[in-house]
């Protein structure tokens, strides 16, 4: 079965950093673009970062540019999200997804999410 398992979320002070991981199984990971979304209470799910199957193309939401970096290791079937200079507004459940064959695709599979809380 398809499985996406996120990890790395934590309670962090403003200005801190986190590295989120998403371990994938059950599909040909290296053929699929991947994405990170986040969802805060009372807000719509937000697409924050995308990466092509090869890792050559990356795209970010304006709200996270210059602070977030998406990357992947196809040999490990894992996609990462490095988050720097965390702000309270980054507080959310972060979910990874598969977008199919194109970095401009729509989500096909979802993980359960990992919680990031930024608070002093």
Order of helices and strands: EEEEEEEEEEE
Average of per-residue pLDDT values = 97
Helix content range: under 10%
Low-confidence stretches: none
Number of strands: 11
Sheet bearing the most strands, described? 7 strands, mixed
Instruction: Assign the structural class, choosing from mainly alpha, mainly beta, alpha/beta, alpha+beta, or little secondary structure.
Output: mainly beta
Number of discrete helical segments: 0
Quaternary structure annotation: single chain
Distance between the termini: 40 Å
How much beta, percentage-wise? over 45%
What does this entry show, briefly?
This protein has strands at residues 3-7, 11-12, 18-25, 33-39, 46-51, 58-60, 68-73, 78-83, 92-100, 109-110, 114-118.
What is the strand and helix layout of this fold?
Elements: E1 3-7, E2 11-12, E3 18-25, E4 33-39, E5 46-51, E6 58-60, E7 68-73, E8 78-83, E9 92-100, E10 109-110, E11 114-118
Parallel strand pairs: 2-11
Antiparallel strand pairs: 1-3, 3-8, 4-5, 4-9, 5-6, 7-8, 9-10, 9-11
């Amino acid at each position: 079965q398809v499985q996406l398992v996120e990890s790395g979320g934590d309670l962090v002070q403003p200005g801190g950093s986190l590295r989120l991981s998403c371990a994938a199984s059950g599909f040909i990971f290296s053929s699929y673009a991947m994405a990170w979304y986040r969802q805060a209470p009372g807000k719509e799910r937000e697409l924050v970062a995308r990466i092509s199957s090869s890792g050559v193309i990356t795209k970010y939401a304006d709200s996270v540019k210059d602070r977030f970096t998406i990357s992947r290791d196809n040999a490990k079937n894992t996609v990462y999200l490095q988050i720097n200079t965390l702000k309270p507004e980054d507080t959310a459940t972060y979910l990874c997804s598969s977008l199919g064959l194109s970095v401009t695709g729509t989500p096909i599979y979802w993980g359960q999410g990992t919680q990031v809380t930024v608070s002093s």
